[in-house]
Every structure is written in C-alpha cells, then in structure tokens.
Description:
Blueprint: H1 22-26, H2 33-71, H3 92-95, H4 98-133, H5 136-166, H6 169-191, H7 205-212, H8 216-249, H9 252-268
Keywords: Cell membrane, Coiled coil, Cytoplasmic vesicle, Membrane, Transmembrane, Transmembrane helix, Transport
Protein name: Secretory carrier-associated membrane protein
Organism: Phaseolus vulgaris (Kidney bean)
Amino acid sequence: MSRYDPNPFEEEDVEVNPFADGQAKGKGSSYSGGAFYTTDVKAKEKELQAREADLKRREQELKRREDAISRAGIVIEEKNWPPFFPIIHHDIGKEIPIHLQRIQYIAFSTWLGLVLCLVWNIVAVTTAWIKGEGPTIWFLAIIYFISGAPGSYVLWYRPLYRAMRTDSALKFGWFFLVYVIHIAFCIFAAVAPPIIFKGKSLTGILAAIDVLGDNALVGIFYFIGFGFFCLESVLSIWVIQQVYMYFRGSGKAAVLKRDAARGTMMAAL
C-alpha cells in the first residue's frame, strides 16, 4: 500500500451541478397545474358573469316598477321624521314650493301644538285624578290623545301637505272640511263647558276655575292647559285664513266647484 493512498474511510466530496441534469430530470414530469389554474379561473369568471347578469336583471325590474309607479302618479314616501325614530314622511324644504313653506311650517307647528296640548291635558287631568276627581276624566283624556294625535295627522295635516305639494283642489277641500272641526275642538277644549263629566276631562277655563277652589296646584295646571289651547286656536285660525287666501287666489276654488258640479251631474245621470 502506498503511503499516499487515500483513506478508504474518508468521504469524498463530490460537486454536483444542480442544473446539469435538470432537463433530464424534468423530462418525465407530468405537472399540469397550469391547466387546473385555467379551469378554476374560467369557473370563477362564469360565476361572476352570472351574478352580474342577475344584478342587471334585478335593476331593470326595479326600474320598470319605479317607472310604472311614476306613471300611475304614486309617490313613494320614505319615513324620515322624527330623525331618531322615523314614523312619517316629512320634508317641507324639498317638496313644498318656497312661497308656501312658511304656511306649511306653521301648519306643522299647529299639529305639534295639538299633540302638546293633549299631552299636557293628560298631565293636568292625572293630577286632578290623584287629588280625588275620579278615574273617568283620566280615561277620557287618554282617549283624546290616542284619537287626536294620529287622527289629526291623517285627517288634516297630511292632506294639507299633499295639497301644497301637488296643488290638488280636492285635497284642499278635504283639508278645509276637517280643519274647521279641529278649530272647533280647540275652542271647545279652551272653554271646557260642563257637559261631559263637568268638563274636567279638558283643561279649559271653566274647568280651571272649578278645580282652583279645591286645589291650587291642579288649578294652575288647568290654567296652563287653557293657555295652550288658546294659542293653538289662534294659530289654527291664522293657518286656515292663509291657506284659504292662497286657495282662492290660485283659482283652485273655481276648480273645486267645477269638479263638484261635474260629480253631482255624473251622480244624477
């Protein structure tokens, strides 16, 4: 053995070029990831196209319905008032002509004023009940509020709002008819004659004088309610005067008379 013979137990360092036989190693590869990727992309494209077509179809259907509603004269009213809990649609600044907005705002104040009057009426009558007047007047006060607050909005404020917006003679006529009843009720409540349970279910002047002798606090509450109903009556009279002046000046009175005459003639025929 030669002294220069290599050690048989020593590991021999073999340098391997990783790129030398790469081509040879890859010859037998059957990787088809590109095909799978292409198929997946095409499937997603088809799904997106189907969704887009469905959205377009829905948009066209919605537009068709909106056009049909518009042609029929139906206005979609989105509830937006009060802002914290919308229950009615109300937008004087955008829907009412500028020259009528002042009247409409004051008419809206009379509706809110009526609600305030009826709420205070409950407070005053509740105080009278606690002081010994009996529960019947309290139940009547609750009935006034439950029927008066929503009833006034439906029967005269909303017709006036729509009359101002659409300039409809028929809606103006309905407003006048019901608003006169509203004014009559406010005047009746401000007086509170002793007709129904001695008039103590309403905070009018006569009821205030009657309860003042029994209890000063109840009498003060009734006098405050009397003031509310007086203010409501005065504002309501001003509103109906202003609306009537506009109604006559715009020629809607003649239109309403002509429509009424035409309706009477058709009914007779």
